[in-house]
Amino acid sequence: MLKVALTGGIATGKSYCLGRFARRGVPVIDADVLVHSLVRRGEPAYAAVRERFGEAVLRSDGEIDRAKLGAVVFGDATARRDLEAIIHPAVYTAVKTWYEALADLPPHFALADIPLLYETGHETDFDKVIVTWCPRLMQRARLNQRNHLTEDEALARLAAQMPVDEKARRADYVIKTDGTFAETDRQVVEIYEALASR
Questions:
Q1: If both were cysteines, with which of 32, 61, 152, 173 could 130 make a disulfide (CB 3.0 to 4.6 Å apart)?
Q2: How far apart are CA 52 and CA 70, in angstroms?
Q3: CB of 3 within 8 A of CB of 96?
Q4: Which CATH superfamily is domain 31-101 in?
């Protein structure tokens, strides 16, 4: 079973591409979805986040309010590093466990969507890396539209990640998402076929 990572900048189409691979029968896991489960009340990461950031980042039901937490960590680099030190080890442990549980069946590769793969230095955990790419101005526009962020908030999130051009330079495969959905789908199929027939 080939371990493949899908990464890229925020708002570059990772989730869309992950869905297209899944529709072709590729086992997939999404680190962002994992984070939701890892910080639920009762989980070790929840306790660590609550201890570090306090009651101010909780909703009325006691669960972590991701918007409030995001406002804190994207405005403070130290706070962001503290959160990453809590979350990232738990995510990579969960991804490793997921891979180990998979049967090596066609198409003989499985895909993990890991937004901060290069930033965390975990690219060597994977056999191949796919990066989704679009121009920075398009990223900003998508981010503002999708997340309803101010310009400053969008820029802070972009600044917290490695530039997508650098990620694309390091990747084994690049999916350019600045065209039509059909163009993106064509690239997904090409990469699927290359990995499935290796």
A1: 173
A2: 14
A3: no
A4: P-loop containing nucleotide triphosphate hydrolases (3.40.50.300)
**CATH code 3.40.50.300 for 1-27+106-198:** yes
Number of residues written out for the chain: 198
Q: CA-CA distance, 11 to 137, in Å (whole number)?
A: 11
Sequence-separated (6 or more) residues with CB below 8 Å from residue 142: 11, 12, 134
pTM exceeds 0.85: yes
Print the SS3 string covering 11-56. Answer: CCCHHHHHHHHHHCCCCEEEHHHHHHHHCCCCCHHHHHHHHHHCHH
Q: Return the sign of the alpha-carbon dihedral for residues 10, 15, 21, 26.
A: positive
How does strand 109-113 pair with strand 128-133? unpaired
pLDDT in tens, 30-50: 998 999 899 999 998 999 999
Residue 147 has pLDDT above 80, yes or no: no
Residue 106 tokens read as: 């066609």
Q: Where are the domains of the chain?
A: 1-27+106-198, 31-101
Q: How many beta carbons lie within 10 A of that of residue 172, not counting itself? A: 16
